[in-house]
Design brief:
Distance between the termini: 10 Å
Number of helices: 11
Largest sheet: 5 strands, parallel
Mean pLDDT: 93
Number of domains: 2
CATH architecture of the largest domain: 3-Layer(aba) Sandwich
Strand order of the largest sheet: 2-1-9-10-11
Strand content: 15-25%
Radius of gyration: 19 Å
Number of strands: 11
CATH class of the largest domain: Alpha Beta
Shape: elongated
CATH topology of the largest domain: Rossmann fold
Length: 246
């Protein structure tokens, strides 16, 4: 038995979530409910990208944030600026961009494990830290850095905007998914509005990536299971374990 699984994120050219699902033997239905868009203030992102040398650290939470900053950078990545990355994929994107010294990352995905690594790596008081953000993104690292005394500058790197309900609904109906993986509260809310809570309840399984997504699905009244880690490989493996129990 193979489930058709809806990928509700804008998976990009690398198709990271789709690839993880295909490795587990699922048929992928690509039905993004949010689309990447430029930040509300492109000039502000351009200004930050052009002045990376002024910062002691730059902390990234996603590959998208790395690409957004690099694409606005008028010259090569500056040497000597320390960087940190949530997740191995983000760290690899920074390495490809030329980050030197190499980016700091944690063995486990997520913001909390990264902060556990960063906390003892520097005397944070007075350190200038740039954090590229997206509206609605987690603020744990920003809050922890400020609590440790760092001077944190936030710059919106990109935003995720909902697709039109009728576009989502047409994609959903055409793919007829039997399960879905949902990676953000905004995706959960947008999908529920487009296809209806009843449509989500009719699925064989819904997997939430991260506790805030799980909380959003609970508030909507959608039965779900939370992946043990907030990464795509863990979500795909978790869904496979749910299928095996059927």
């Amino acid at each position: 038995m193979r489930w058709r699984v809806a990928v509700t994120r804008d998976d990009g050219a690398d198709r990271r979530l789709a690839a993880a699902l295909e490795l587990e033997g699922f048929d992928v239905v690509e039905c993004p409910v949010m689309e990447e868009a430029p930040p509300a203030s492109v000039p502000r992102l351009e200004a930050a990208a052009g002045s990376l040398e002024q910062f002691d650290w730059i902390v990234f939470s996603s590959v998208r944030a790395v690409h957004a900053l690099v694409n606005m950078r008028p010259s090569a990545w500056p040497r000597g600026v320390r960087t940190a990355a949530v997740g191995s994929q983000t760290a690899e994107a920074l390495a490809r961009a030329g980050a030197d010294p190499p980016p700091v990352s944690a063995d486990a995905p997520g913001a909390e494990p990264l902060w556990d690594v960063l906390a003892s790596l520097d005397q944070w008081t007075g350190r200038r830290v740039l954090v590229p953000t997206t509206p609605g993104g987690r603020r744990l690292l920003i809050d922890r850095l400020r609590a440790a005394g760092a001077s944190v500058e936030e710059v919106e790197a990109y935003q995720m905007l909902p697709r039109a309900d009728h576009v989502i609904r047409a994609c959903w109906d055409a793919g007829a998914p039997q399960a879905a993986i949902i990676a953000s509260p905004s995706a959960a809310e947008t999908l529920a509005r487009a296809v209806g809570v009843a449509g989500l309840r009719a699925l064989q399984a819904v997997v939430a990536i991260g506790p805030t997504t799980a909380a959003s699905l609970s508030a909507l009244g959608v039965p779900h299971s939370q992946a043990p880690r907030a990464d795509f490989t863990a979500a795909a493996a978790h869904l496979a374990s749910l299928l095996q129990r059927r």
